[in-house]
Structure to design on (92 residues):
């Protein structure tokens, strides 16, 4: 099976948005266009951040279990992850 690196693929675009490394320039360009279109046509706008960028908001805090996870993980019945991070932290 040949992987097409000249055509964007949904899974690789999600990977890019989630801060992964398994994507190609065409996927990043498609993701950027989608985010731009979203922000032009809806409110509130979305700011895409990697897990590391999200973690920087918690610097100096003690991150509690389960750590930085998909927001869907905070619901017991969640079956699908979403591309939004959530965490609970406290001052040490």
């Amino acid at each position: 099976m040949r992987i097409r690196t000249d055509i964007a693929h949904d899974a690789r675009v999600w990977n890019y948005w989630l801060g992964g490394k398994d994507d190609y320039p065409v996927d990043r360009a498609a993701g950027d266009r989608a985010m731009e279109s979203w922000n032009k046509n809806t409110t509130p706008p979305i700011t895409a951040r990697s897990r590391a960028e999200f973690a920087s908001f918690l610097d100096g805090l003690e991150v509690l279990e389960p750590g930085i996870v998909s927001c869907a993980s905070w619901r017991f019945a969640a079956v699908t992850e979403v591309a939004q991070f959530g965490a609970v932290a406290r001052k040490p």
